[in-house]
Structures are given as C-alpha cells and as structure tokens.
Amino acid sequence: MNQPISRYPVPKLEDLPSDVRDRMLQVQEKAGFIPNVFHALAHRADEFRAFFAYHDALMLRDSGLSKAEKEMIVVATSGVNHCPYCVIAHGAVLRIYARNPHIADQIAVDHRKADVTARQKAMLDFAVKLARMPEAVTEEDLQPLRAYGFRDEDIWDIGAITALFALSNRMAHLTGMRPNDEFYLLGRVLPASK
Amino acid sequence: MNQPISRYPVPKLEDLPSDVRDRMLQVQEKAGFIPNVFHALAHRADEFRAFFAYHDALMLRDSGLSKAEKEMIVVATSGVNHCPYCVIAHGAVLRIYARNPHIADQIAVDHRKADVTARQKAMLDFAVKLARMPEAVTEEDLQPLRAYGFRDEDIWDIGAITALFALSNRMAHLTGMRPNDEFYLLGRVLPASK
Amino acid sequence: MNQPISRYPVPKLEDLPSDVRDRMLQVQEKAGFIPNVFHALAHRADEFRAFFAYHDALMLRDSGLSKAEKEMIVVATSGVNHCPYCVIAHGAVLRIYARNPHIADQIAVDHRKADVTARQKAMLDFAVKLARMPEAVTEEDLQPLRAYGFRDEDIWDIGAITALFALSNRMAHLTGMRPNDEFYLLGRVLPASK
Amino acid sequence: MNQPISRYPVPKLEDLPSDVRDRMLQVQEKAGFIPNVFHALAHRADEFRAFFAYHDALMLRDSGLSKAEKEMIVVATSGVNHCPYCVIAHGAVLRIYARNPHIADQIAVDHRKADVTARQKAMLDFAVKLARMPEAVTEEDLQPLRAYGFRDEDIWDIGAITALFALSNRMAHLTGMRPNDEFYLLGRVLPASK
Amino acid sequence: MNQPISRYPVPKLEDLPSDVRDRMLQVQEKAGFIPNVFHALAHRADEFRAFFAYHDALMLRDSGLSKAEKEMIVVATSGVNHCPYCVIAHGAVLRIYARNPHIADQIAVDHRKADVTARQKAMLDFAVKLARMPEAVTEEDLQPLRAYGFRDEDIWDIGAITALFALSNRMAHLTGMRPNDEFYLLGRVLPASK
Amino acid sequence: MNQPISRYPVPKLEDLPSDVRDRMLQVQEKAGFIPNVFHALAHRADEFRAFFAYHDALMLRDSGLSKAEKEMIVVATSGVNHCPYCVIAHGAVLRIYARNPHIADQIAVDHRKADVTARQKAMLDFAVKLARMPEAVTEEDLQPLRAYGFRDEDIWDIGAITALFALSNRMAHLTGMRPNDEFYLLGRVLPASK
Questions:
Q1: pLDDT, tens digit, for every residue of D48-92?
Q2: At least 3 CB pairs under 8 A between chains D and B
Q3: Residue D128: pLDDT band by 50, 70, 90 thresholds?
C-alpha cells in the first residue's frame, strides 16, 4: 500500500527552489501535512508557481461566493471529471468550510440531489455544464445565475474556478496523482460547539 | 460588425498595471497587433499574470515537441472543445510555425484525417482523449506514446498543454472571446523561398 | 435539515405487516439503526418482500466473490448511476467488509484509479459496462473475466448484482431516497487490531 | 438454427423445485408454451422466485395504468436498452393487450413517433429517461406526469416497472437470452370481432 | 387512426409527372400497394427522381452482397437512427429476401445479438459505425471487412447504402413519414416449401 | 505531399461517360479547377449522376433560403460530422456567396458562436440536430423555425440539404476524400468594392 503519489519523479523538499519549498512548508504548518498536489506539481517549478498563483488569485479573492461555495464548485466539477485527488482532497476542505460532514459526499455523487440551496444548485449546474460541455455555454446560461443575484464578477469566479480545475483534474489524471490518507477523514466530525 | 471581444469590460491599455501593459505592447511589437485574449483576460490582472506565466512555462520551454507540434495540440483540443477564439488564433500560429497553410484547418476539423505523421497522430489522440474524457486516461494510454519515442517529459508537455487549454477554452466560452480579424488570413500563403 | 427520506409516504413500523416489521427490527438490532431503504420500500409490502428476497439470494449466497467484492460492484455501479443513497450506504458497508477506510470513496469516484487488484478491476469494468451500456455486453466481455479465474457462476453473480442495483438505483432516484446520517462515518476508522 | 436459449445451463423441468416447475406449467397451460425467461432464470431457483414475485407484485397490481400501458413501458425501455428478448416477447404481449398489431414495433423503434396518446407519451418519456439517465430524474420530471392526471401511485408503477426491466434487460444481456419463436407472430392479426 | 403519411402535402397520382406516376404504378403492380415513401417524396418530383435513381443504382446493382445483406444494412442503420418508416418497411423486405421471419426484428433491436454470420456482423458493425459516428471511420476499419473477404467494391456498397439511408432516415424524420400497414405482417410466415 | 484524393480508383477524364465528363468540364470552366468530389464519385457513374441530380435539385432551387444560407447548412452539419472535404470545400463556397471571409471558419467551429442572425441560428440549430440526432426531431422542432418566418418549403430545404450532406459526409469518410488545395484560400480576401 506504499503507492507512488505521482507517475513522475517527486522532488525532495531540500532539492526544491526556496520559494517553492517555503510555500509547501507554510501549508504544512497550517494543515499539518503537505497535500500531494504540491509534491506532484513541484516536479516543474515554473508550472508549480503559475498554478498556485492562479489558484490563490481565484480562491483567496474576495467574492460574492463564500469559501464553501467555491469548494462546492471544485467538488462538483471534479466529480463529473471523476478525479480522485480533487474530489477527496477538496471534499475535505469543503466539509471544513461548510461545517457540514455530509455535503461533500453528496455533491461528489450528484449535485442535483445534494442539500444545497436553489441558488447554489444553479451555480453548480452552470459549473458542471462548463466543465463537461463548454461549447454549449452561451449567453442564455447566464440568465438563471443573474436571476439568483449572482453579479457578473461572481459568474467570472464560478467559470474561472471551473476552468482552473479543468486544468487541475487533467494534471491529476496525467500524473496519476494520489490523495493523502489524511483527507478521507478530515471534517467528518463536527467540532462540538462551545 | 463592431462586436465586443468579451462579455466583460475590456480595460484600456493606459489603465492597466505596467507589467500587464508592457507584456501587451511587446506582443504588439512582435505580431503587429494585440491578440484579444490579452485584452479579455486583462480584466483581472492577477489571473492574467498567472495565465501567461503558465503559458510561457509550457509553450516556450525546450521540449521533445516542436513549436508546431505544441500548436497542433492546442488546435486539436480547442477543436473538440469547439472554441472559436483558440481554433482561429492558434490555427494562425500553427500555420506559421509549420510553414503549412493547410494543416490548421485539417486538424481543427479532425486530427485523424489530417496530414500529420503517425507519431503526431498518437500525440493528438492522447491530447484529445485527455481533453474530452480525462477520466478514461490511464497508464495504458502512455504505451503508444512511448512506442513512438515520446519521453516522459514530452508526455507531460502534451498533457499539460492540453490541460492549460482546457482552462483557456473555458475562459473563452465564459467571456464570449472573439478572435481578431487578423488571425483568419495569417499564414495562409507561404512566403516565397529565397 | 429535517428532510424527508422519500417522496412517498413512509409507513410507521407499527402499521407494517409483521414479517416486514420483523425484518426491519432484525436489521436495527444488528446495525444499530434501520437503513432508510427499508423505510422507503416498505410503502409497498409485496415489492419490499421481493426486493429483499432478491437481495438476500444474491448478497448472502456463497460465491467466488468475497463480501467486499460484492459491495465493490454495488458502489462502482451506483457511482456511475450517480445514486446518493446507494453510494453512501453501500460505501459504508464496503469499508467495513474490506476493513479499508479509503476504498469506497476511491471506487465511487472511478474504479479504474482505485486501489483494487487487476482481477477486481476486470470485475468492475464488466459491471460498469453492464450497468451503463448493457447492450454492448457480448460473449467477448466474458473472456477477460475467465482469464482472471472467474467461473461462470461468479460471472452470474457480478452481472446479477449489477442488475439488482440497476433496479435499486432507479427506485432510489424515483423516490428521492435519502441516506441515513450514520452511513457517512461508518467504517472510516479501522478498529485497532488486537 | 438450434441455438441455445441461455449461456448458462437450462435445467430440465423434472429437476426443478416443485413451486418453480408449477409456475412454469401454469404459464404453459395459459400461453401454450413456456417463455424462455422462465427456463433461463430457473438456473437459480431463489432468484427466479424473487424475480417473479416482483414481476407479479407490479404487473398484476391494480393500477391507474392499463395492462397495455404497463407493457408499453416494458417495450419502450427494453427498446432503448436494445434487449432482444424483452422487446420481442413483451412486444407480443403488448400487441395482445392493446389489441393493436402495430403498436409494439412502433414503440420499439421510437416511442416519440408511435401512435400513443399525449398522456402515454409523457409516461414513456419519463420511463425512458429513468431507464437510460436515472441520475437526471428529479422532482421536475414528475410535473408533466401529474399534469396528465397520473397519481403518485401511478408514477411509482411507471418507475418501478422501468426499474424491474432495467434488471431484467441486464439479466437477458448477461445470459444471452433468446426469445421463443412463438413471440414473433403473436398478436399480429386482430381476432375478428364478433 | 387515419393518420397522415407525411407532414407535407401528398400529391394525387393523377397530378404527378408521368414518369413519377409510372414508377409508382410499377411498384404497385409488383408489391400490391404503393409504399408511402413514394407518396411522401413525390411532393418534389426532382428530388424523387434523384432519390430513386440513387436507390436503384445501389440496391439493384450486382454486388458481393446478397439482396438480403443489403437490406440488413438498411434495417441495422435505420434501427440505430430510430426511423420507424425504414425499420418497418425494410424489415418486411428483409424478411422476404432472407426467407427468415425473425431476422428483421432481431437486427432492428441490435445487430450484435442477431442470427447473422460473423462476416455479416462485421459488415453491420462497419455500417452502424458509419451511420452514427462517421468521423470515427478510418482506414483501420476496413481491415476486418477485408479479412472476411469483402472486396473494395463491396465495401463501397456497404458504405454507400449506409450513406443513402442516412439521407433517407432524415427525410423520414423530417416529414414524419408513416409506414403502410401492410409492411408489419409481410414475410412473417414462411411460404410452405414445395 | 502527393496524397491520393480517394481510397478508390479515380478515373481519367477521357475514360468517363461523356455526360459525366461534360459536367466536370463545365465546373472546371466556371471554377478554374475540378473539385475532388467529382473525381472521387466518378468511380461509379450512376451514383455520380444521382448525387449531382439531387444536389442540383436542392442547391439550385429557388428557395426562401439564400445561397449563402444553404452553404451555412452544409458547413455547420459537415462540421459536426467532422468531414474535412465538405468543411473545407463548402467553407470556400460559403465565403464567396456570403462575401464574408470569416463566417465559414466560425460556423465550422460552432454555429452557436458565429456571426449569424437569430433566424440563421435557429435554422442551423435545426440542421445540426437533424444531422446528429435525427430521431430527436419532432413536430415541436418546427415551431421556432416557423416563428422566424420559415415556410414549410423552406423547412424541407433545410432538412433535405442536411440529409443530402449526411450522405455526402459519409461518402467522404468512406473514400477518404481529400479537398483540393485551392479551397483553403478561396474567398478569404474580399474583392475591393468599386
């Protein structure tokens, strides 16, 4: 069960450029472990830097979407792309942000039957369509989003997160990226409220 | 016929951060015009920077793939994603790099019937599969590529270019990005050899 | 969050025929709770009896497949049918039988990338094909199974479990069946070995 | 042309448990021959009993659907599942119940172009969707059925018949089940009215 | 039940150009009735003439395919195109040419499970692929046909019959063409051999 | 680069029946070269005659559709059928008739994003649906066309052109038909207006 986390060589921390290593050590300090996507993408430092710059620009940005909603988009689109790394790793993040131990499994199976609001369902309908049938997305698809109060910048967020994980899912399939064992259990028990 | 090049606001050059503007002016100097993807993505400078950093890391990198072969991947995967901007703009680039006025239209319609080598056809088969059915890509799909002499780093290039344009195609569909008129004619007449 | 477990009326235990109620109480004694599929299907006692008779005939039968392998088939085929009840409930059962806290999430996302043996992958390839494209299953599909040592009766088991959950998934989608909260966490922590 | 009716062993009548044999003899008395589904499924008596218990619970039940309408569902869903046994055998039953020698062939090719009422078309639209894309069935799909006067119990009947034949079609594909020659001609000539 | 045979006006025989009328009267003399495709296409005499000229060039041509095999192609490809007129009308013709009352229903449901030779199955595999996924047909698809002894002219016949009925099926869907009642029963009882 | 224009023998002009040869010489006089479809189909003179009779009956007919609109249908449906010959050859014709050097590339990639009127988009939606999913075309699909003012005869034109190129695309895929080099550049530069 000591399976490789990528088909490609995984560099040792000490062999990495310092900015890449520092980024990974920061994550480790915060999360307690280094998610395998960092190890796998570190194989090429320039692409690593560009990927996480894109990621931060979108995921850390102030937005009409909550952090949990951004992760819902990641889990739903990675689900329809059948990407084990992204569903399992971002499923954990979604459980934590949403403070809901059930939502990630529900959305991974099918966002249409999940415990989300009608507004969130419209958001995920759009994301899943752009993920799998991008050519079918036209001006008309923006109307239901606007009807639910999404502003144009929010719609860019929905679409751009979908687009970034279209890239990410494909890198995960290309490299055979394997989720860390830690992700499976994270966020499955709600912290007792004070 | 004075159609918008994006559904989103397009910033004026003078309003852009200087690094973004400089990048655009460099392209203008080299190509004679600024491709609309720069105008459209400049709406968000951080994402613009990350996108072109990713692009340069992959497309300018030394590789077992020629520049023309990299553009073949862009045209073939953008073709199956029905992305007008990417097919028309990168079709022009492909014609120029390949010094072949017919190859882009052929690949855009169907790479399987195009005038490419068997090795290039294997490369495009892999790219198109990863573009449209990423979940179906497994270890077995690497065998035909290796049999044609692609090294593991070349395969990363094929996969990562496909992944980046999976992102790019979705941004183009999201924004309704419109190709510059210049692209349609570029590279259609071979320069007379000296 | 007090969502109905079925679109259809759910009978009270005391209003059920005694054989149906007894079956449910037995499960409760063994599992600690009554899975919602019993509540939902109890709406029609005759169909309830037939369903669980079929279930027991297949799932309790001695077989060349282990109990965990039978549940792998349920999870993989329910995954491609996007059935929340069956993926989440049988995912729990699979984790327990396989004594593996990760396997169910992996198979639910994509059995091709899961930690299963080559023999199990062949079994799940067949099941998933029969689940989604039954018409494409021909004599030729039996060859890889036989090559892995599956006997004809084992192949019947694989096919019939797939067929029964083709029925079950559709009843779950028809009734909007909701998994019990208990299932999400079951089997996620391995019992300490003695 | 003496083709096997199943890939699996077909037990002799005299070797069967008496309840299974009795059921088959009753059918023979009524229909004049024993449909091959009985022979093929008798290979496993417990599953045989469960299957026909389920079948009778649904198909013999009083319902807002006529007997002909129930068979329309079987023929339409078996048609989209490309199941020769079920289309040809239940096509015969449908011709007889509907007293219409053309309807089964029409529905087997495409229920949308068949001589059915608008109400029946809505019923078959729902059944075919549940048969082939069960995950896409949501609460919204019930509205057109209710608008045509189907009650909730009728909708359960439509869905459950579809679900049972999802199972049955897969057993037929698994076993290579072959229709009896008798079915092809049954019900093709209307009995002269008295 | 007095349904129109076409969405478009159906000209009276006496109003037709004499060559069109003569063609129809010849068919009537031979078959005992005029198939509705003649009535429906007669709405435009020039297209009628071109269609039947194409039809005769292919279907009456000496070929490595028997007349029954040509009709198998029509029934199989019209089946996957879900064309009621062509399946029901040419199903009758196939039964007669093949002197086999079962073969048309089998092929209409799924040629892969029908009582055809391995050579005929290869022929129908090719035809069905060209009918539904024409872009996927490449040089490699000709190899299995050649291995079964089909010459290049035979392969043209297979492909061209498929192509002509790709046209014909679409005209039938466009016009809502309705098969004559006579077709349903034709060829279902084998003439007693002398 | 001296690739064959067809997998099948291409007859010399002097060996052709005089009516076939005359037709080809007329085209040559008008266009300056003989499109390869004439060479390739001349392999069988009777089918050649029927094909071009059908073509002329539809394409030269007075119609509610302009010549450019007829070619839009050819390019859009040949695009979704991934037919290099038809996209590239008729793309040239479309550019000339529409006096628009960009429209053919746009429609070939995706008619939904092309610079066409809403009326033309409805026309192409219908054509593309009939081209790829003919069974899904029902009476309801005619409503949007009528709402845009298409008369029934115009709708026949749309459907029949789609049907004829369903045939033509398949003959091109069957024969591996190769477009003439001339087509790639034709119509790409607008003639200076006087």
A1: 999 999 999 999 999 999 999 999 999 999 999 999 999 999 999
A2: no
A3: very high
Element (H, E) at E125: helix E118-132
| Dihedral of alpha carbons C137, C140, C146, C151, sign | positive
**pLDDT (tens digit, 9 = 90+) per residue, F15-30?**
999 999 999 999 999 9
Q: Token pair of B138, please?
A: 């497994």
Assess contact for E132 and E163: CB atoms under 8 A: no
C165's enclosing H/E stretch is: helix C152-175
Q: Please provide the average confidence, as pLDDT, over all residues in chain B.
A: 96
ipTM beyond 0.90? yes
Residue of E nearest to D89 (CA): E105
Helix (H, G, I), strand (E, B) or coil at A121: helix
Task: Look at residue E193 in the predicted model and tell me its pLDDT.
Answer: 58
Residue A26 burial (10 A CB sphere; 0-12, 13-18, 19+): exposed
User: Which residues of E, range 69-98, sit inside 8 Å of D by Cβ?
Assistant: 79, 82-84, 87-88, 91
DSSP C32: S
DSSP output for chain F? ----S-SS----GGGS-HHHHHHHHHHHHHHSS--HHHHHHTTSHHHHHHHHHHHHHHHSS--SS-HHHHHHHHHHHHHHTT-HHHHHHHHHHHHHHHT-SSHHHHHHH-GGGSS--HHHHHHHHHHHHHHH-GGG--GGGHHHHHHTT--HHHHHHHHHHHHHHHHHHHHHHHHT----GGGGTTTSSPPPP-
Mean pLDDT in residue range A57-75: 97
pLDDT of residue E170: 98
Give the number of other CB atoms < 10 A from CB of residue B50.
23
| Amino acid in the structure at residue E69 | E
Examine chains B and F and say if they touch (3+ CB pairs below 8 A).
yes
Nearest-angstrom CA–CA distance, B19 and C4:
56
Say yes or no: C25 contacts chain D, CB-CB below 8 A: no
Angle at CA of residue D152, ends D94 and C179, nearest 5°: 110
Residues from chain B that touch A142, judged by Cβ atoms under 8 A, are: 7
**Locus of tokens 């679900």:** D163
Q: Which of the 8 DSSP states describes residue D35? A: -
The phi and psi torsions of E142 (rounded to 5 degrees) equal -80, -20
CB within 8 Å: C162 and D170? yes
Q: Do C138 and E113 touch (CB under 8 A)?
A: yes
Distance of CA E158 to the CA centre of its chain: 12
Question: How far is E44 from F100, CA to CA, in rounded Å?
Answer: 32
- For residue B84, give the nearest of F3, F91, F106 by CB distance: F106
Choose, out of A113, A116, A186, the residue to mutate when testing the contact with C (most C CBs < 10 Å).
Answer: A113
pLDDT score recorded for residue C190: 76
Q: What is the chain E residue with the closest CA to D177?
A: E113
Q: Does C51 touch chain D (CB under 8 A)?
A: yes
Count the neighbouring beta carbons within 10 Å of the beta carbon of residue B55: 16
Mean pLDDT along residues B166-188: 97
- DSSP characters over A82-101: T-HHHHHHHHHHHHHHHT-S
Contact B78/F49 with Cβ under 8 angstroms?
no
- DSSP code for A148: T
Query: Picking from C41-50, E90-99, F185-194, which range would have the lowest pLDDT averaged per residue?
Result: F185-194
Distance between first and last Cα of chain A: 39
CB contact at 8 A, A186 and A92: yes
What is the overall mean pLDDT for chain E? 96
- pLDDT grade, residue F166 (50/70/90)? very high
Q: In the structure encoding, which two tokens stand for residue F142, read together? A: 């005619």
